[in-house]
Amino acid sequence: MLLLSLAQAPTSSAPVTDQETAVRRFVDAFNARDIDAMLAAADDGIEWASVDGPKVTIETSGKGALRDSMQKYFAQCPSCKSSLEWTKASGSRVAARERAGWTSASGPRAQTSLSVYEFRAGKIARVYYFPVERD
Fold first, then answer.
1. Backbone phi, then psi, for 12, in 5-degree steps?
2. Domain ranges of the chain
3. Between 2 and 96, whose confidence is greater?
């Protein structure tokens, strides 16, 4: 469900916004399996949404649901890591291209996805994930 990894420096010369920095720290916390740090960056009502064509599915709603989801996710995929190939801030949102990597029984695997982080009062209020593109 969740696609995240080691944050990389942005490739453009545009200054990095506070929101982009917050997204990078969130991904760093994901990679460190630091659920408390992830939740500290999140709004109380945080929602995770998967976008597939015209369909938007809310995967989790609220910090408690995010905690439960992350605990299960980390138990199922201990090798999963994520990186941000790029970020771009626009108003209350940050768009990112995320690369997820993990080790399967057949060896290393990776996929990328577009994500959009929406902020409210300085906290991540909603994350949209678009369909993955496998490498």
1. -90, 170
2. 18-134
3. 96
